Amino acid sequence: MSREPTNAAPPVATAKATLSIRARLMVLAGIVLVPLLFDRIRTIENDRIERIDTANQEVLALARQGVAAQRDGVIAARAFLQVAARAQATLAPTSEACNRFFADIAAQASWKMFSVADGDGHIICSSRAEAIGLDISDRHYFQEAVRTGQFVLSDYARGRVNSTPTSVALLPQIGSDGTVESVLIGALDSEWITRLASTAAERPRSAIVVVNGAGTVLAHHPEPERWSGRDFNEHPLVRAMLSRPDGVAMENGLDGVRRVFGFAQLPGTETRLAIGLDEQEIVQGVDREMRYAYLQLAAIATMLLLAIWVGGNRFIVRPIRLLALLAERFGHGEYEMHTARRRWAAEFLPLVAALDDMAAKVIARRAEARIMTERLNELATKDQLSGLANRRAFDAALDSEWKRAQLRGEPVALAMIDADHFKLFNDHYGHVAGDSCLRAIAEVLAGAVRTDLDLAARYGGEEFALLLPGMELPEARKVVMNLRQAIEDRQIAHAKSPFGHVTVSIGVAALRPVLGEKAQVLVEAADGALYDAKRQGRNTVVAYEPMMVLMAS
Question: What's 391-552's CATH class?
Fold first, then answer.
């Protein structure tokens, strides 16, 4: 009985011939004018769309530059507060010294204000004298900082001391009793908004708008005094800005000028920043080109008969260049060219068919090679008897997880599992039964794998390994105790074992690697614990610790 080939080459599509080159040149004169008209109009419309799209990308990029500047300020603020908290306790023990200390560092770091509030929300120390005594306990961000005990960044708002947009960074200080003793407060510099406004002002009739989550305008350029502090939460532009974290919108600005706005949300806040460019400026050049286009088409019509031969470039030279390009792509390994899907002149069909035939054969051979490579990779990393990872795959995974744990400071747990009295099992029941026993143990071991990071492997002979990255020793010990019990619960008969059925001994260790330490340290620790488990009568779990060995049955 004949069999179909398993890797047959895909069928080659048949290319269809259209008019010959000579016929195309004959009809070119009658059809060239209308396509030119429509192509020109389409090009101009595409240019309009591209200019608007370019403007969208430009304003969005400008908005994201502002976001990046604010993000850098927040990162610097958090680090600065942490350093200032440690320095303040040592260098500024009194209120007067504290005021001078924060005034100095605020001036050097260009902060708008730097203060300390007690746990009740009263400013007790500040770089600005007028801020001392202010009660900020009603502020949501202060309440959030006291509640969580973590670094908090407020939404932008108009400050109480001055009217410029201000965002407040807070870092609580926790006392020995676990309560918040004080809160370090820094008012972030908003000069980046002014700098961004100056950049946007280089374009005529551009605008910059900053609104908080309630729709209140915090900053506006130009005419900041006219718009800042007013509520525009019903304005179409503001609604669009608050509807999503970032994007673009073509809307009338607050001053009524229609612009293309790009906006983005400032990290850690509900505040949005928008940059707008005048729509008329973007498209006015396109409208001018539209008028010129009709004049150009009139001139082209008078020159058409003299320019018929130019059509040969499209219908003769271009197909030849395209075929040359396809051949070059073929030489660079791009085989899925689908040349038969195009319509070719009859003179080019033999070459097109030859290219498609060669590409189909190469694709078929590459598919065969890929299948073979995948099979070889599986054979190189998988133990054929147990279906688990082999020793080679285990060593590679252990080395990788060990290095990752060194960088992250995480533990790595390893369990070494050995089938008790397995040689006696093989001698009594035979190697076929021995293989079945190992597969049963491997099946239980595979069920102990929690995530993709865990790895169950056959370490050699009747010895297995279970790699548990990120797991501390108590948790790992619990996992392997359940594993030992699960294997015993299988009740695989073993007449030569003192237990009457197949059991395993397990040694488990969990270490946090230090730089320069090899993964072999973990293997030796788990192997030593396994040796102790065998010495203590087998069918048990022994956990390794640096100073002592904990034993559990």
Answer: alpha beta
